[in-house]
Amino acid sequence: MTTTVSNTDLAPSHRHASDPTDMGVVDLAAAIRGRELSCREVMDAYLDRIEMVNPRFNAIVSRLDPDQMRKAADAADEAIASGQKTGALHGIPQAPKDLTPTLGIVTTQGSPIFRENLPATESIVAERARREGAIFVGKTNTPEFGLGSHTYNPVFGTTLNAWDTNLSSGGSSGGAAVALSQRLLPVADGSDMMGSLRNPAGWNNVVGFRPTQGLVPIATNADLFVQQLGCDGPMARTVADAAYLLSVQAGYDARAPLSLDMDPLQFRQNLSRDFTGARIGYLGDLDGYLPMEAGVLDTCRSALKNFEDMGCSVEAARLDFDMPALWRTWLTLRGFTVSGTLGKFYADETTRSLLKPEAIWEVENGLKLTGVDVFAASVNRSAFYQVMRTMFDSYDYLVLPTAQLFPFDAKLDWPKQIAGRQMDTYHRWMEVVIPATLAGMPVAAVPAGFGPKGTSQPIGIQIIGPQRSDLAVLQIAYAYEQASGFSRFRPS
């Protein structure tokens, strides 16, 4: 399915009003409210497309009974007809990521340990989507326990890239990204610890948004106070659609004591804004610290011209921090978190045999840590936050690539080298995403175009803003999207 073209050969898609799967969630929700489309028409269109396309890509798993989905859509239509109050996602097909617990739907986390797992509780993002009228049709595929940015697992197999089925879709929200790019869902939830909303977005030419830490509450973790690396967030084909889903996901919840009390409806406003004079700091490969596959930096630099067309100033920026020490901080905090989560499965020989090697490696690293090690890592993370914070004295936004290489062969477990430099861990090739994670800052992943081999090489850029500047980050991402036009491109 590989097609090799240059960026200039790409033509934008044209929306067919008769096909609901070509509509984003904002337009779809408006059409349902205005009775231009029935919920049943929308559901039929998506179920037909999933039936036709999903077997090729394996993006949606644990699919529910189509007849039940159609009955749910009919009930949604009856609610509209009877004048009942409807929510923002009324009648919209959704498939939560397979890491997020869902009532009544198996949540495997990509692990054979949970092959038959029916959670007793539901995640807040799933709960809020249901409350707003979403109809769940299944789950989106993920790597085992979300570890690694390549979506494959022993339960459901591999999710293939939306643009080239020989290649990885990224992860851990790979199923969500491919489902969006291939029009199997209008909008999707994802989660992100190490770029899981960003890397698959870049590799499938869609949008991912990692919010300020705490903006989208998480209450299903056993630890509600210490673990502050992962978060939930939206993915979509456009920035406006991502912002719309964020308006459903965001907002304080007492079950998540560190969640933020920010008005979620701010993300449903018109995102248009003038960015003349905005200052963009481009971090690139962090002064040569990060190895990059040939073509990645050139593609991203070319995308920066869109900011200049918007009236922004763009200049190379330098992050004045000990990056090798930051990587060690990352290994400590991640090992601490993963070993705390998966340690009980490692301790049991039966379940340990079902863990992939990378999960065992993470747990064993975590078990070697002392409390002093973890505290020192947290202190270094705090120092890094202060450096990132002061960067915004000079710049309004910081920009990085979403990945250090283009999508790799889907048969690989993970890339062992980039530009001749050996990768010493299964996730070292993803190091470009840890600055925003460790700083807890909002970051939008938006398409940057395609590399020298054309559509087999999608890549994106990360647009990072100060903490709690989520709306501003979405606004500049929207302006960039309008200038670049990349969101209009779709795979065959």
Can you describe what's shown?
- This protein has 492 residues and is of the alpha+beta class.
- 35% of the residues lie in helices and 12% in strands.
- The chain has a domain at 7-277 and 467-488: Amidase signature (AS) domain (Amidase signature (AS) enzymes, Alpha-Beta Complex).
- It is built from 14 helices and 16 strands.
- Strands 7-9-8-15-16-12-10-11 form an 8-stranded mixed β-sheet, with helices on both faces.
- Strand 13 and strand 14 (421-422) form a beta hairpin.
- Helix 2 runs antiparallel to helix 3 and helix 9 crosses helix 11.
- The protein is globular, with a radius of gyration of 21 Å.
- The termini are close together.
- 54% of the residues are buried.
Identify the CATH homologous superfamily of the domain at 7-277 and 467-488: Amidase signature (AS) domain
Shape descriptor = globular
Would you identify the regions where 5 or more consecutive residues have pLDDT less than 50? Answer: 1-16
CATH class of the domain at 7-277 and 467-488: Alpha Beta
Helix content: 25-40%
InterPro entries: Amidase, Amidase_dom, AS_sf
Biased composition (Polar residues): 1-10
Domain Amidase: 41-474
Organism: Paracoccus aestuariivivens
Sum up the structure in keywords.
492 residues; eight-stranded mixed β-sheet; 35% helix; Amidase signature (AS) enzymes; 12% strand; two-stranded antiparallel ribbon; disordered N terminus; alpha+beta
